[in-house]
Specification:
Arc Repressor Mutant, subunit A; 5 helices; alpha+beta; four-stranded antiparallel beta sheet; 155 residues
Amino acid sequence: MKMEKRNWPDNLFPDIEEGGMRDRNGRIYFYRLGLDFMLDETIEWLEEEDKSQIYAYFYLKLCLAFLRKDGLIQRNVGERKLPCSMEYIAHKTRVPVHIVKQGLPKLEHVGLIKKMEDGRYYIPTLLEHLGSECDAARRMRRMRSRQKCKAGGVE
């Protein structure tokens, strides 16, 4: 399967600030959710499974945990790219192993993750939700917000 690859080094985001990852040039990267994300039928189905929101929560944690790897749920060992064990995924997402064991097949069943031929998983829509903003854009947005407040608008 063909995937967009960004080739980010592991140390690209040395500082975590304001809920995002900052690169050396001051640009912040973040994971964006659409306004209707939680209303999506796929997410609703996950929440209805076992009458719990844990699988939707696990999916979000999975996205954030493997964001730097472009959504590839894998371990990079030297030149090799290996599938992650359930225990490793549980450690990275900080959820119990039994949730990972039950959750990965559910996420795969509804298409939120895909399994590759070599056993690795990937998150196909992860890069669509990636956003970024540089320092200048953030300053301009804040300035416009302050001007709007001074003019009688609501922030």
